[in-house]
Every structure is written in structure tokens, then in C-alpha cells.
Design goal:
Layout (H helix, E strand, L loop, with lengths): L1 E6 L2 H10 L6 H26 L6 H5 L2 E5 L3 E6 L13 E3 L2 E4 L8 E4 L2 E4 L5 E6 L7 E3 L5 H7 L3 H29 L1
Antiparallel strand pairs: 1-3, 2-3, 4-5, 5-6, 7-8, 8-9
Helix pairs in contact: 2-5
Length: 184
């Protein structure tokens, strides 16, 4: 699994602990809130950047992104979950197969002899026969979010850099929030 790791470095921890020395119980609260907000913002940034590469909706992209948060550590990852071709807008049944478009930069593609069908379980998808015979039938899927991120040069670095910049700002903001609470 591909992941962006968000951690508190030792220097930031010592600075915040020194500033909040009068409120020692506030230190974990500051870092927990700052990391949580940074992880959420990094996941949103990753969704936006991936949505410029593929035609998937942002809600479907979010299914392929995982978030983990704790007091001093957070991560945003991309799963290897592959959405079905029917989740990409513009997937249509044509007389000789199914037309679909995955990438925003490339044109439409065609699965000859493919078909859109609802299975007895209620699942709808794009299917095609794997051989020339009637069976077996396999569902066709698009690329995983993980593959899309790997195929876009500089995307992961841009998200990581933006998350690092945000974390420092959010730590300062949360220290200010604790001082406002204390001064009441």
C-alpha cells in the first residue's frame, strides 16, 4: 500500500512542549488535532489531484484512499481497490460492445463483445467472456487509485510537501487555541 506518512519531528515536539509548559496535558491534544486535520486535508488534496487524471467521481476516489490517525502519527494511503468500469462516467453499451473512458487525457476505448449486466446478487457491472466460449465470464475493472498515483509523476511529492507545510501551521494554530482556552 502506498502511503504518505505524517509525523511530528522532535524539534516541533520540544518547541510545543516548552511553549505549553504551564499546560502539560494540552500537548497531546495539540498534536492529535493538528495531525487529524492534516491527514484529512492531505486526503482531500490527494482526491483532487487524482480526479484531474481520471474521470471517476471524487466520492468513488475516496473509496480507494485510507486514513489513519493517532496522537503523534498519521498516514494517508492508497488501496489497491479497483473500481468497476461502470463507475466511470460515460460507460455505455454499444451494439458491438461497451465503450468507456478512464483517463482524462486519453480517448474512449472499446471492449468488443462486452456487456453491461445485473447479476442475481444485484451487482451491476461490465462483463466480458474470457475466451470465445460462453463461460467463464469476468468483470472488467479500471485502474486502482494506487496505480494512478504511481503513474502520475510528482503527484505524491506535491501532496507530501503540502501536508508538511500544513502541519507546522496547524500546530501553531492549535497552540493558540489552547492558550485562548487557558486564558478564559
Amino acid at each position: 500500500m502506498l502511503a504518505i506518512k505524517i509525523t511530528i519531528d522532535e524539534r516541533s515536539f520540544k518547541e510545543a512542549a516548552y511553549i505549553l509548559r504551564a499546560l502539560p496535558r494540552a500537548v497531546p491534544r495539540v498534536f492529535r488535532r493538528a495531525i487529524g486535520r492534516t491527514v484529512d486535508m492531505a486526503a482531500t488534496d490527494l482526491k483532487r489531484r487524482v480526479s484531474t487524471k481520471v474521470t471517476l467521481k471524487k466520492g468513488d476516489i475516496a473509496k480507494g484512499i485510507s486514513k489513519k490517525k493517532s496522537t503523534y502519527y498519521g498516514s494517508v494511503g492508497a488501496k489497491e481497490w479497483r473500481p468497476g468500469l461502470l463507475e466511470f462516467p460515460g460507460t455505455k453499451q454499444m451494439p458491438h460492445g461497451v465503450r468507456y473512458r478512464v483517463s482524462r487525457t486519453e480517448g474512449r476505448r472499446m471492449i468488443k463483445h462486452g456487456f453491461i449486466q445485473t447479476m442475481p446478487s444485484g451487482h451491476r457491472g461490465v462483463f466480458a467472456r474470457t475466451r470465445g466460449t460462453r463461460l467463464p465470464i469476468g468483470e472488467k475493472r479500471g485502474p486502482s487509485i494506487w496505480k494512478i498515483i504511481q503513474g502520475a509523476p510528482g503527484l505524491l511529492k506535491a501532496v507530501t510537501d503540502a501536508a508538511g507545510d500544513r502541519l507546522g501551521k496547524l500546530i501553531n494554530d492549535q497552540v493558540g487555541v489552547e492558550f485562548k482556552r487557558w486564558s478564559r
